[in-house]
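BUG: 3D viewer hangs when loading the predicted structure for this chain

Environment: internal workstation, default settings.
Expected: structure renders.
Actual: progress bar stalls at 90%.

Input used:
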Amino acid sequence: MAEVIAVDGLAKRFGAVEALRGVSFTVDGPQVVGVLGPNGAGKTTLLEILQGLQRPTAGRVRLFGAPLDPARYPKRRVGVVLQHEFYFDRITVGDYAELFASIYGVTGGRARIIERADLAARQSIAVARLSGGEQQRLFIAAAAVHDPELLFLDEPTSRLDPASKRQIGAFLRKLGERCTVVLTTHDLREADAVCDHALFLVAGEIKAQGARAALIDAVPTAERSGLGMEDAFFHFCAQRIAADGEAA
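Structure tokens produced before the viewer hung:
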């Protein structure tokens, strides 16, 4: 595995609000990495900095071993799925796939997206008429059509039912075999099923990080309920959440 992301002393302020403070971590790949935390923890802000959309107040970021320069962002090596993806009201699945294949200049990209999203029978349907799970499969397949080395997803299953979450989880696990998938979520059980590595982010601070198995093994036997990542998260973070509240 090789270093994909390295963050050192990252901070971000919005006026008097500290969204991130002293965040440091390193991610190797390929694997699936979860940034886990309650609403308002700073997860989206962290992703936006890593995507070159926000500039940090302090700290350093490296992608693929090089300092992050938003003006020279390595777009060909990265894919992004936003929390709320934009699409034209009447655009069909096939046309959406064709659009992203053209954007990335991938010959045969339309067919690749449709196949990976498992939407061959839905190509003529408007994207707006797809189920939430179908839409997310399409968005993820489109963002990964150029086979990026790094894929960012912000709350990719937040509005999905359990069956759709399992489908997306299996899709992400497969992608994680060949690229580094970084996703934000507050669904700890989903993270337990999908992630190889996790960062626990609370009130803008990393409370713990590491391989899934190592985080779970660090939980004292008396605190375990058999819920894996959920046990680990509350072992490392519950006291801070109780003090600051979920919106911290």
